[in-house]
Amino acid sequence: MSKKSKGFYVGAAGVASFVDDFDFTNGRSSSNVGHTIEWDTGWGGVLRGGYNYGSTAIGNVRAEVELGARRVDIDNILDQANPSGDTMLYSGMINGAWDFDTGTEFTPYLLLGLGFAAADGDLAYDKDNPTSGPTQQDKDFAGIIPAGQLGAGVGYAINESIDATAGYSFMAAPTDDSGASETLLVHSVLLGLNYKF
Question: Which pLDDT score is estimated for 4?
Fold first, then answer.
């Protein structure tokens, strides 16, 4: 971060997200057979605000609150016909970040966060029925679940008040809503700006 590092800051970033395959069971299915969702690349953004404590006994540390929203469309449901649907994934995190002073305008960082994820989505697909032919199946995803994230990246000081940031985060959110005790795993690439007061 720039020389003007200690104090409050706010920031925003655009996000490209990649969600790992997700297993679920459809409660409307008498056989309760599991299925696997494959996702398209998701897009969204995060807002953050925090305080930079500067140099402390445990290094150059920051504490921040981060709010995020991502939309991820369904690409495929394995072994099922005509899949469709999307999910909005909201997140709220309290992050701790450690900055590494390189003596240049570039400042690498590591980040650890804990909070929640809230999913709101739906899916539909055609399921073959031996007696009646294809029948439409659907499922809604909704709920608030605990989540955590790890992140790393770098800040570049444009001037004393503004940093450009680029980073990667890995978020994990365990859920039983899928019917398969699956964990939602989200990889995100973030590009943004921080403004320091």
Answer: 56
